[in-house]
Amino acid sequence: MKAYRRLVLAALCLTALVVVFGAYVRLADAGLGCPDWPGCYGRLTPHHAAEDIGAAHAADPHGPVSPAKAWKEMVHRYLAGGLGLLIVAIAVLAWRLRRLPEVAAGAAIGLVGVVVIQALLGKWTVTLLLKPAIVTSHLLGGVTLLGLLSWVSLRAWGAARASRGYGPILRLCARVGLALLAVQIALGGWTSTNYAALACPDFPGCHGSAWPEADYANAFHLRRELGMTADGELLPLAALTAIHWAHRVGAAVAGGFLLLLAGLLLRRDAVAGRVLMAAVLMQLALGVANVLLAVPLPLAAAHNAGAALLVGVMVWINWRAGGEAVSRRSPALQFAPLRRAENGRPS
Prior knowledge:
This protein is mainly α. It contains twelve helices and no strands. The chain is flat and about 65 Å long.
């Protein structure tokens, strides 16, 4: 059991790193640093493919291929590959320990399916030349993996649940808050993958207007190439404006709801309320700073990290909200299986 808990925690930390580093690779315009998959020009490392990378870079010095971009892309792939192996090991251990209440065997095995889908999306991201729908789906897959691993980790480590204070309404609000956060992350991913972060350079309005001229039809058409409409024409500024503005409106709705939830939690679960409020305010501040400072790479990566942090916080709050069933068991009974596992069961 001890090995299982440690593997789950290591996978959770590595997933957070992969999600944030993947966002950094995309923001650094290195997503096609190696234009094939899974290797780099058919080689294991950019070092072995140095001749091909050098020729591509010499032919187009401002293009997507360069030694630095190739290494960024491949480091992300190495990290993702290591994460996949970790999750397979977790699934095997979870099956062996499936009778223990601390082991979410179904979720742990389901993680393998998510990893397979993520690998396919990662391949298509490269081979289909950064299609926005594929890249955004890849981001959402990473966030899904992070959320599931957070839940599995909380269960594995016997995280405390709130035995009082979470009535049906507050539990519902916690679930709605997680759903709104997922929608907002999707909007943020769509903004990033369409390079629409600079479409509205002012704040709080956009192009000096509280409701700017926007082309929502082309903005949210999923089956199209990067920077193009479904008809093959260049994506107009009005479409980029629509993408950016939808993300801002989503931030107001999701952020406002999460702050309201934090306020409700302060009276019933003060620690959770304070953590959620701090995470939401930090994320909103990073969003505003990105607009005002024209999306510098460190701030943009931090904004993605803030989204990942919020996912973990909301999963934790939903975990704590399920405290009534646990509260019927005494602490001694609750952790007895864990002690038996450590004393006599396989670990």
